[in-house]
User: Which sequence fits this backbone?
């Protein structure tokens, strides 16, 4: 049974009186433990798709089933709970809280979880350690390099041990070396811990860390195929 | 989200914009400071005035001429000449008013006095030999008015400090003669300086026998007031009734509504003044409370700016699992903490200023002023400022909580 399933998925944005359709009837199934890359040029609808899959934006047509339950059947509270406990997000622009230490940034999802407060510190430290930033615990985002910021974001995404990690152009703002480290960690999360990963990218090189690449063009699926020669994930303790 | 963490988060949000937070709470600080000061100083003034009324003595009863006014158009009713010498005679009789220990007729008004080239217009206060005792107005030099002075309508006068200073800045007036309404008066005594501490300001007075004042100064046969002292505090009420029936009989009054005199006791005065001052204090405190509403609008304004400023943070928190309620609580707590701090600072500031003012009043003006910490007003101040935070923080907080996470994350 797929963890993520979309049927005839559509998304139309209404800006004042202009309606812009971005997704045209997508059908996708992603199984638990899969590593899928969604590729496409800008404007192909890949970010929109990720936002719908991440419960950040509702679809305007078709169905999105998460864990076999229609997304429209989740209440506001349940949606928050799914985002918190079952999904992890890595954004292109990191989205770390300014003037907040690495440790506190990583703790943030725990704050909204049912995890007991006395456990937060240990869990967050472990997550920071797993991305190799234990020596930066008390640093604030402004004191970190781009690659380090993204690693903090990865630690934050996995701190609640989610089923799915959504990564939206995680290497988009990084130099190639930092990008490689970040992708190495994401690959490792899949290989070693079995997280389901949905990666958005427009770089073939980055997409090749995944097992499967879905290519979008103009809001429709252009191709959906397995990756023959996968790049292996590395670097994680 | 656990509440302690929510409070921590709110504090962190406020600390990130220290100057803005400080300026925001200024309105609340000023409002609460004003409330505390009004109530504290109001209480001090009340204590002072009540203390002075009590200083006149609980046994003292005042009889004033004229019908007591029944409304604003009835003012003239008070200006009659209904208290005359025969009333004093009647009141002095033990079978009429058995508990009346002392009786003193009083006349007063102002008249020009002169000495050398200087002139001044003091209040002429005519009484009898009991005046010094009743009003605690003993001269510190010279002597008081005696019964003989009263009997003989003697041209003698006891002067307050201000009168002395105005008439003769550099020359002692004791045993000198001054002119009042063209007549020579011997200064037989000088009163000590009292400041405004007494209910009656003797500094600006010239005391003389009431007979002298009636005959030579004002040319009248009636009295402006009659002061009766009961032999015991417990007999004040019965004495008041005796005075009423004696005067009614003498004046041929059957309907008490048509009394041509009025009676004032210390208890009445305390009650009246107490009510007036409490009403004033409550009124002023309410005016000050309005400034809290203005402060609240300031809070709302800044919270709206803060929500816009932190749109991305709101989006992120929602993406990471914050519910609408979590976001609402975060911003509401920020507003309440802001106004709460404003309230506490206002209480400290208001208390400090009231205390400083009480020191100035005591030391500079020489009044017996007691500083009171208005606990009730402090509690109300904290409560109102918290409610202001709750009410004016709600709209911005709700706006934040209803943001779509993805639109918030896209916000630049």
Assistant:
């Amino acid at each position: 049974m797929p963890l993520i399933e979309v049927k005839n998925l559509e998304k139309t944005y209404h800006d004042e009186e202009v309606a812009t359709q971005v997704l045209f009837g997508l059908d996708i199934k992603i199984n638990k433990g899969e590593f899928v890359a969604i590729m496409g040029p800008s404007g192909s609808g890949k970010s929109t798709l990720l936002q719908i899959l991440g419960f950040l934006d509702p679809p305007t047509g078709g169905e999105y089933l998460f864990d076999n339950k229609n997304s429209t059947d989740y209440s506001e509270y349940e949606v928050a709970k799914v985002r918190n406990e079952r999904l992890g997000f890595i954004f292109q622009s990191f989205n770390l809280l300014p003037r907040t230490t690495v440790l506190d940034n990583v703790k943030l999802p725990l704050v909204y979880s049912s995890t007991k407060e006395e456990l937060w510190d240990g869990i967050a430290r472990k997550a920071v350690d797993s991305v190799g930033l234990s020596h930066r615990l008390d640093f604030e985002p402004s004191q970190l390099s781009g690659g380090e910021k993204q690693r903090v974001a990865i630690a934050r995404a996995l701190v609640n041990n989610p089923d799915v990690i959504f990564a939206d152009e995680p290497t988009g703002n990084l130099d190639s070396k930092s990008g490689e480290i970040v992708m190495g960690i994401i690959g490792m999360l899949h290989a070693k811990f079995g997280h389901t990963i949905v990666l958005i990218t427009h770089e073939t090189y980055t997409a090749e860390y995944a097992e499967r690449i879905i290519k979008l063009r103009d809001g429709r699926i252009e191709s959906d195929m397995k990756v023959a020669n996968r790049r292996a994930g590395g670097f994680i303790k | 989200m656990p509440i302690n963490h929510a409070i921590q988060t709110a504090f962190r949000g406020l600390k990130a914009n220290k100057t803005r937070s400080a300026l925001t709470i200024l309105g609340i600080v000023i409002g609460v400071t004003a409330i505390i000061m009004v109530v504290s100083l109001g209480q001090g003034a009340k204590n002072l005035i009540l203390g002075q009324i009590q200083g006149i003595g609980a046994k003292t009863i005042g009889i004033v001429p004229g019908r007591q006014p029944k409304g604003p158009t009835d003012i003239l009713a008070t200006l009659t000449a209904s208290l005359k010498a025969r009333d004093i005679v009647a009141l002095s009789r033990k079978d009429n008013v058995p508990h009346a220990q002392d009786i003193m007729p009083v006349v007063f008004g102002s008249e020009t006095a002169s000495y050398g080239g200087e002139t001044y217009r003091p209040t002429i206060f005519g009484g009898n030999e009991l005046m010094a005792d009743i009003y605690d107005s003993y001269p510190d030099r010279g002597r008081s008015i005696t019964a003989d002075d009263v009997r003989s309508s003697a041209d003698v006068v006891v002067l307050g400090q201000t009168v002395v200073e105005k008439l003769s800045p550099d020359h002692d007036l004791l045993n000198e003669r001054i002119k009042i309404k063209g007549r020579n008066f011997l200064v037989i005594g000088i009163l000590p300086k009292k400041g405004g501490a007494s209910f009656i300001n003797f500094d600006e007075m010239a005391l003389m026998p009431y007979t002298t004042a009636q005959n030579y100064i004002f040319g009248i046969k009636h009295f402006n007031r009659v002061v009766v002292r009961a032999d015991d505090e417990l007999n004040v009420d019965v004495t008041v009734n005796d005075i009423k029936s004696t005067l009614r009989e003498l004046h041929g009054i059957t309907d008490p509504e048509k009394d041509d005199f009025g009676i004032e006791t210390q208890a009445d005065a305390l009650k009246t003044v107490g009510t007036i001052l409490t009403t004033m204090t409550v009124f002023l405190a309410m005016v000050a409370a309005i400034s809290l509403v203005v402060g609240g609008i300031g809070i709302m304004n800044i919270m709206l700016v803060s929500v816009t400023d932190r749109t991305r943070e709101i989006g992120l928190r929602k993406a990471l699992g914050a519910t609408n309620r979590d976001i609402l609580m975060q911003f509401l707590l920020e507003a309440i903490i802001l106004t709460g701090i404003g309230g506490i600072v206002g209480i400290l500031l208001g208390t400090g200023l009231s205390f400083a003012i009480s020191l100035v009043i005591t030391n500079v003006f020489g009044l017996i002023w007691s500083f009171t910490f208005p606990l009730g007003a402090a509690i109300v101040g904290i409560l109102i400022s918290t409610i202001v935070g709750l009410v004016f923080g709600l709209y911005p907080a709700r706006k934040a909580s209803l943001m779509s996470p993805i639109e918030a994350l896209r916000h630049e």
